[in-house]
Recover the amino acids of this structure.
């Protein structure tokens, strides 16, 4: 009966989507545990140890706690915006996983304009954050929301430029083809222009995911905790999950763009290679988070427009030139 | 300095910092997993009070001279003295820890080696009345020592009464600390 | 004490009421009214309950976006009236209260109070006690400066610095607990000396700690001092000129970072500081980074002092005889001690009775805080946190 | 040696003042204690600061004390370069305490004057913003005056006692 139900394309896509959702959330729970463990080990302490064997169930316990906790809507808040904001932040992050190729066969939808789609879907989250900042009618959240709007927009540009450089090399916007172009260990990171592009991309994504040294929107020491100060319970969980899902996606995309996606030694299946590589990148992001202090708003924007964007432009030109030169020589 | 050099110099110093955090990542950790493991406490630790129990005389050293109560800046100590001279002692010793600063002035003021601060630091209570400690909580060796103390004092008083002579006032035993505040 | 909320000294200006519903809106007048409105700053409360005000300090910030237009510090949330309490007790009973002033370096308060009473009553302190007091001061200074390093790092986002600094501070507190019995509120200085001698091979423990600290200081530099982001966040921020620093009565590392060499341990040496060879850390720029660096370098000086104390420590009594009831002759006396935050001074007035007539506590944090309002105007919100952190105040001694 | 030139420096600095200005001046070690009457307090402080020899330009401390019969202001000014300090005592009328503000000479004394006003009720003329600094703005009475009556608020166990705000200072 199940097999017969699976023929119907709608049901299959639904199951597909449900499976993808489950994988993402499970991955995020593992990520949260990893973050707390890595933070602990870097700060010469143990991190979570009590809940479950060696603390594995800590993030599950957190999730259950957040779900059961009473989520308060502050009286002066603009209810409509307050309630809607978490969805505006959470949904785009999930939507973006649609085009991520775990391995050649495993992709929810092989979209030919995947790169463009990723960038477009990512910007919707900015609206969510500003809505949260404005909706809670709290001065700290307002500051946090406005800061993050400025930050996300200005770091969108270097990320786009970096992806553009990769697209030149792969001659296609589809992530699957980009990954295919790198099979057999010919990863794009070894191309000189794309090495710089990877550097620009990673710093841009650091800012996109609001992580130190760019975690201004939720700077604990200044704005208490920025735009999600007044959120609690399930709504705060959505912000929390969104941030970690975004971090995972940023490193997974970096793996697809620069580190050859599912291409790896024949031992493991493709998808596991991709997840393994992106976890290494996530570790680097965490490592950076627990070492560096936070930049100030004007320095943040100055760095984006005066340093990253020029480098991005140069990289795009350099990539285009090297592609044309390679094509010229080939013919 | 040209911008490229500052950028690379800055990057290099960031990597140095990250090298340190990575090294600490692999270094042994300092966490003491309380309550399973405990941090050793120094012999002079100023924790929960106790009234010293004198084994041979089967009584508490305290003779109720209230020197500690006078030395206390926040009137924490109050007591009920029984008997006179060598048979003097206390049958009730109340410490209102809600006002105590753990400043050790009472221990220094006591000439009879009677009150000390031990090494117990877990004495949280759920309501304010719980922080008022009686002699049964303070006597070293638990409540039955408090009971035995009162019995010994009664016995001494009875003997002194039938011998008809009040004992002379108790001489402070030898005590390392000098005459206190 | 009245419990209704404190009136806001400068309530946001009332909204201009909309003109009455006349038949025709005078566009010109309305336009002019909008122009006159100008940008109305957003009045925001930072504190008294805020992660980085280091205690119950309330800053009323008038913001124009991220820029701070005006700042008014409000204090008094932790006022317990300690000075009035002192007037109701004998001199020596007030000593334990002084732990609760600058609770991060309470031995400095104990010493300042005891020193004032000793000067008022003319009590001599034996040599050994003076040397041990110097050791206690410097150990407590190290613990206080380590706490500063940790919280200042966290204020700027480097939370790992807090864990590293507190890991070393834990060793210092263990040493202080070994000799005094307490970890924070020591109350371990008496009028005329110390309550007890140091446990044996306590000095070996302190020297071992000095070596450990000296091996860890370069690590702090790699994490904070040399970090370009930290430098960019602190250099040139909140600059105080030497003249302003002196005029505002700043003391301690906050003053010496602006180039004024005023360190009570060298300016008016007390206890055994005159016989100890150490350098006063004086920098020039007077910005937030200089204030941070001043405390960071003072750690090395304190280690240097600790090493000299133990090879000059003489044998002898630990406290001098002081009668049961202390009645100082009528008069006025003041003590001066270099606490990690600056010049801590107790001024005492006696009329011959066992209780003091007046005990005034000149707290360095109280004086250093006066400069915050002018320093912060024109900077960003993130700088407010950095500048406040760099002045390193403790609200216990600001409010008393 | 230090005392002689500090004493002489002070005398030259204060030479220009009217006769009764400085009631007494003793120097012991590096601290000079001056008793000054209220009328010429401002003049003495100005000369202490501006006179190059004395150059007491560092506002170390400002407080007051009330013995029940008389109330005194205590200024302590230090000269960081020369390494000495001057303790200036000045009697103030108890019923109507008032004194000239020196915030323009030493901005550091701004909060100190506000605290003395808050606790003793001494009105400092010329102070830019004389408000209470530690106590709530609507607090009546000046707590540090000896005639301020306020029974202790009771121990936590006996529960809050009715606080008698006491006769106004």
């Amino acid at each position: 009966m199940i097999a017969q139900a699976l023929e119907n394309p709608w049901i299959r896509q639904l199951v597909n989507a449900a499976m993808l959702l489950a994988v993402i959330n499970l991955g995020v729970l593992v990520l949260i545990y990893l973050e707390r463990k890595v933070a602990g080990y870097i700060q010469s302490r143990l991190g979570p140890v009590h809940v479950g064997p060696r603390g594995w169930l800590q993030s599950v316990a957190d999730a259950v706690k957040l779900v059961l906790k009473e989520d308060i809507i502050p009286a002066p808040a603009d209810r409509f915006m307050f309630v809607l904001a978490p969805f505006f932040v959470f949904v785009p992050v999930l939507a973006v996983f649609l085009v991520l190729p775990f391995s050649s066969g495993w992709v929810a939808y092989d979209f030919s304009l995947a790169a463009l789609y990723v960038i477009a879907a990512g910007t919707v989250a900015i609206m969510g954050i500003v809505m949260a900042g404005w909706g809670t009618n709290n001065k700290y959240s307002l500051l946090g929301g406005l800061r993050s709007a400025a930050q996300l927009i200005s770091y969108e540009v270097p990320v786009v430029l970096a992806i553009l450089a990769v697209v030149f090399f792969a001659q296609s916007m589809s992530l699957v083809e980009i990954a295919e172009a790198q099979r057999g260990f010919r990863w794009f990171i070894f191309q000189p222009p794309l090495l710089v592009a990877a550097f620009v991309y990673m710093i841009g994504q650091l800012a996109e995911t609001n992580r130190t040294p760019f975690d201004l929107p939720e700077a604990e020491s200044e704005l208490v905790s920025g735009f999600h100060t007044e959120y609690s319970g399930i709504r705060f969980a959505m912000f929390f999950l969104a941030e970690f899902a975004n971090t995972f996606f940023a490193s997974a995309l970096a793996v697809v763009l620069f580190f050859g996606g599912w291409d790896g030694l024949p031992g493991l299946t493709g998808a596991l290679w991709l997840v393994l590589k992106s976890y290494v990148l996530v570790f680097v992001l965490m490592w950076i988070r627990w070492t560096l202090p936070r930049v100030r708003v004007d320095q943040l924007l100055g760095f984006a427009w005066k340093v990253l964007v020029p480098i991005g432009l140069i990289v795009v030109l350099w990539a285009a030139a090297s592609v044309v030169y390679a094509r010229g020589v080939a013919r | 300095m040209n911008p490229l050099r500052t950028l690379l110099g800055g990057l290099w110093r960031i990597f140095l910092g990250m090298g340190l955090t990575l090294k600490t990542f692999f270094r042994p950790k300092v966490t003491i997993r309380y309550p399973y493991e405990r941090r050793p406490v120094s012999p002079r630790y100023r924790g929960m009070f106790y009234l010293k129990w004198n084994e041979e005389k089967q009584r508490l050293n305290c003779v109720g001279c209230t020197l500690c109560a006078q030395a206390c800046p926040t009137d924490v100590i109050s007591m009920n003295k029984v008997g006179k001279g060598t048979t003097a002692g206390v049958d009730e010793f109340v410490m209102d820890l809600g006002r105590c600063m753990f400043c050790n002035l009472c221990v220094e003021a006591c000439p009879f080696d009677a009150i000390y601060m031990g090494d117990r630091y877990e004495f949280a209570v759920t309501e304010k009345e719980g922080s008022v400690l009686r002699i049964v909580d303070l006597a070293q060796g638990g409540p039955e020592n408090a009971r035995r103390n009162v019995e010994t004092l009664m016995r001494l008083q009875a003997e002194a009464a039938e011998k008809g002579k009040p004992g002379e006032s108790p001489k402070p035993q030898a005590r390392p600390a000098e005459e206190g505040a | 004490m009245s419990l209704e909320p404190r009136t806001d000294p400068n309530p946001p200006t009332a909204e201009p009421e909309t003109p009455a519903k006349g038949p025709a809106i005078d566009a010109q007048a309305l336009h002019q009214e909008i122009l006159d409105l100008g940008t109305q700053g957003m009045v925001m409360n930072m504190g008294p309950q805020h992660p980085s005000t280091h205690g119950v300090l309330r800053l009323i910030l008038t913001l124009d976006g991220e820029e701070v237009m005006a700042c008014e510090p409000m204090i008094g949330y932790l006022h317990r009236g300690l000075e009035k309490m002192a007037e109701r007790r004998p001199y020596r009973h007030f000593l334990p209260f002084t732990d609760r002033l600058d609770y991060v370096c309470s031995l400095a308060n104990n010493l300042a109070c005891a020193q004032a009473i000793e000067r008022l009553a003319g009590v001599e302190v034996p040599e050994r006690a003076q040397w041990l007091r110097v050791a206690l001061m410097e150990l407590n200074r190290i613990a206080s400066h380590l706490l500063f390093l940790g919280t200042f790092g966290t204020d700027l986002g480097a939370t790992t610095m807090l864990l590293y600094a507190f890991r070393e501070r834990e060793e210092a507190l263990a040493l202080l607990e070994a000799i005094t019995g307490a970890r924070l509120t020591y109350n371990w200085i008496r009028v005329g000396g110390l309550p007890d001698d140091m446990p044996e091979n306590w000095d070996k423990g302190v020297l071992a700690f000095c070596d450990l600290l000296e091996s860890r200081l370069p690590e702090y530099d790699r994490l904070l001092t040399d970090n370009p982001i930290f430098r960019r966040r602190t250099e040139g921020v909140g600059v105080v000129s030497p003249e302003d620093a002196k005029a505002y009565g700043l003391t301690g590392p906050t003053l010496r970072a602006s180039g004024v060499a005023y360190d009570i341990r060298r300016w008016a040496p007390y206890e055994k500081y005159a016989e100890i060879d150490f350098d006063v850390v004086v920098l020039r720029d007077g910005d937030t980074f200089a204030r941070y660096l001043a405390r960071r370098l003072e750690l090395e000086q304190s280690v240097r002092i600790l090493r000299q104390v133990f090879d000059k420590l003489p044998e002898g009594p630990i406290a001098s005889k002081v009668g049961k009831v202390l009645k100082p002759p009528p008069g006025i006396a003041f003590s001066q001690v270099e606490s990690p935050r600056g010049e801590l001074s107790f001024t005492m007035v006696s009329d011959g009775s066992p209780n003091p007539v007046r005990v005034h506590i000149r707290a360095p944090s109280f004086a250093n805080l006066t400069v915050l309002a002018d320093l912060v105007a024109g900077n960003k919100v993130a700088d407010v946190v950095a500048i406040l952190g760099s002045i390193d105040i403790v609200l216990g001694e600001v409010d008393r | 040696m230090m005392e002689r030139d500090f004493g002489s420096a002070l005398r030259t600095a204060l030479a220009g003042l009217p006769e009764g200005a400085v009631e007494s001046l003793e120097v012991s070690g590096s601290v000079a204690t001056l008793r000054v009457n209220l009328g010429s307090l401002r003049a003495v402080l100005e000369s202490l600061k501006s006179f190059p020899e004395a150059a007491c330009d560092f506002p170390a401390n400002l407080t007051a004390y009330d013995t029940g019969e008389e109330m005194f202001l205590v200024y302590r000014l230090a000269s960081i370069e020369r390494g000495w300090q001057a303790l200036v005592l000045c009697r103030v009328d108890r019923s109507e305490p008032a004194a000239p503000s020196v915030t323009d000479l030493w901005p550091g004394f701004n909060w100190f004057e506000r605290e003395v006003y808050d606790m003793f009720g001494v009105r400092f003329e010329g102070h830019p913003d004389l408000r209470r600094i530690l106590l709530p703005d609507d607090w009546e009475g000046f707590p540090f005056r000896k005639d301020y009556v306020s029974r202790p608020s009771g121990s936590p166990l006996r529960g809050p006692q009715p606080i008698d705000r006491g006769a106004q200072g």
